[in-house]
Design a protein that fits this description.
Chain A is an alpha+beta fold. Chain A has one domain: L-fuculose-1-phosphate Aldolase. Chain A is about 40% helix and about 15% strand. The first copy, chain A, has eight helices and seven strands; from the N terminus they run αββββαβααααββαα. Chain A has a seven-stranded antiparallel sheet with strand order 4-3-2-1-5-7-6, sandwiched between helices. In chain A, β3 and β4 form a beta hairpin. The mean pLDDT of chain A is about 95. The interface between A and B is medium-sized, with 34 and 29 residues.
């Protein structure tokens, strides 16, 4: 069986989403990539989380061709593989319909950087894609979803490692990270940050984002060569 | 004992509503129909969920006449039987007072199709009935509740299999499906969709619904002859 | 030991409040009355719920004089006893600081009868008292709290058995019932109804209350000589 | 090992924050001070709560110099030690990013004293600091955070023992108390009070705070020489 360890990590990331209340039924999916072998491990489509096993994970190449697995891969596979091809430093992708992040996506609004919780994980607002055209939706829709994310980061000059999540307009969030654990962790924090951003604008419609200085201070406390957080 | 398997499925659907936090105390009820025999199995009225047993389910004909059972049926029975008589493809009906769907019903507002979570299950907004007249309320009230649902679908040209739920104005939601499992599942997703619609309009009062193209793409990914989701 | 059964019922009502998430730490209290003996059983002040025992309940007369018990009674005792002296059909009183009902109390707003969930339990809006005067607060404050409730019902011509709860302005809800079980049940439903009323006005600021016809239909389905709900 | 009992109390306070849903992952931290020895016990940085042990707590002096411990202390240490140096009656400090209190902090708004739940614990609004300057953020940021809190209390003439919490603008709350148990308790109640304040202003934008008389009555019922609450 190919990629035993990665399968386990991807399964664990999927289960972390359940444990943290980010998914309902079989919604949501996580995947991981082995860059050396050019292979992706992803959750099968529509299988209950409580019976998921590592060997049920589906292995594909970077263009979504199935290499190993009896099950059909997640229906969002083409978004995952596109992100792996375009964002070369990411090692895992997570997609959920978590309540508050999805509500920002449905409203077509980015999640502003209102506080230090946000700044600890996301170096700036979490962006939202443009609305997909009818042509894109009618065509290679799942692929186009990935393109919309990549385009949003390219045009906005946003580093996907500094802002490891994006809201797909009218749909829901995608998050990523260096590995499956980080990607799931980022998806969980994204939801927490979205909850608090929702409360913040409810309390004060024109609330200010944090200053660049505070964004720098908190983000670089946890990331980069000079990080000081943790052991 | 009549309809052993259907009793178990209906009980399981009732318990799923409890497990997912959709009902408080003895609120809510689920039923199922055996089309061949023309019999309905429904939860008894006001019995605690944690002591409910399959043999306590009440069996009636399609006009609510009790055929088997020691207990009184749910007080909403006449709405269930009317829906079975009018919506010929449905196999089960679920009624809850789940928090967010009920709040839309109380506000007299439909649940707009704001995102793909909605589109995966409901092919358009979840409609709300007209306000019942005093005559209807004073007369065969529970029957009239069912009539209001059917009228809303007929007048709106809505296919009950494509939009498997309706909000009763000033009351709460009814959901249905091909079988008891599906009906409960739809009621659970309806509540999740209502939560996110509530958050969406809080964030942006005039938020746009998804395009017809996105509605088509997501709905038909999970439903109909060309469905690709799941195994 | 006096009133063994009533102690157990009062303890159970207190624990029901914890189980349903209505109280934090030692907030909240329930009491019951034995009308024949003219005795009240009430939770002791500030004792952790998870170590509460029936024998720790405090027994007082209808004016709050301690008859049996090693512990100090709940600091809200004088509100409870006043309600027993003035509302002669009630058998138990429950006080919580449950989140949504308390928020209406803090806003100085009644809970409108927006739907059938409300109508099933409360035959009209749940009223809110006037703001207590500085004199009342500086004087027999806990007694005055009870007076404000009674005054609100008397002046509004509200039957305390038909609307078994009141919000104390700037404070929190009191609920009551024929016995301890009912009073706790009413407090739990009050919170559910408050949650949905909050959501309803968020969705539609000027939402309509249910019609008198619907209020009648639902309330009398569960209460009075012609009740049909349950077994 | 130094300060065995204090380590256990600080650990217990940290775990109370987890139990009450105030922290996500390794967010949040609690510390305690031994005034006689001039030593502070604080949670290590970024260690999972479910493996935390008393011996992993870090001991520092009142200026944050490590005296005992293999782990790095919480990154917020300098705020804790400053508060101990400036607020001489406090025995413990707790910092969380709890959802509603943090949302008020992100909106730059104090938590008004809308009801008796608030008045039972906080003798007036819970204040919010000024926005930190870029110089403060770029300099001794964690120390400056503590300074902003102290300055807010000094300039507002607020007694830190009467209002045992402060919101740091754009960041999150700090709470404190006579000992670790009290500080955690205050942080938990702060979040409950913030939730209800959020609901209150949602229901009524210009809601009134409680009167000075009610604030006095409730606060002094639980605090000071004449307290009557509890056993």
């Amino acid at each position: 069986m190919l990629l035993k360890k990665l399968r386990e990590e991807v399964l664990e990331a999927n289960l972390e989403l359940v444990k943290r209340g980010l998914v309902l039924y079989t919604f949501g999916n996580a995947s991981g990539v082995d860059r050396e072998q050019g292979l992706v491990v992803i959750k099968p489509s529509g299988v209950d989380y409580d019976v998921l096993k590592p060997e049920q994970m589906v292995v594909t190449d970077l263009h979504g061709k199935i290499v190993e697995g009896e099950f059909k891969p997640s229906s969002d596979l083409d978004t995952h593989t596109l992100l792996y091809r375009e964002f070369l430093d990411i090692g895992a992708v997570v997609h959920t319909h978590s309540e508050f992040a999805t509500s920002f996506a449905q409203a077509g609004l980015p999640i502003p950087a209102f506080g230090t919780t946000h700044a600890d994980y996301f170096y700036g607002p979490v962006p939202v894609t443009k609305v997909l055209t009818d042509e894109a939706i009618g065509g290679r829709y799942v692929h186009e979803t990935g393109l919309a994310i990549v385009e949003r980061f390219r045009q906005g000059g946003i580093d996907p490692m500094a802002v490891p999540a994006c809201l797909v307009n009218g749909h829901a969030p995608f998050a990523w990270g260096r590995n499956a654990h980080d990607a799931a962790h980022n998806a969980v924090v994204l939801e927490a940050v979205a909850r608090m951003a929702y409360r913040t604008v409810s309390l004060k419609a024109n609330a200010d984002e944090v200053s660049q200085a505070l964004l720098d201070r908190h983000y670089f406390r946890k990331h980069g060569a000079k990080a000081t957080y943790g052991q």
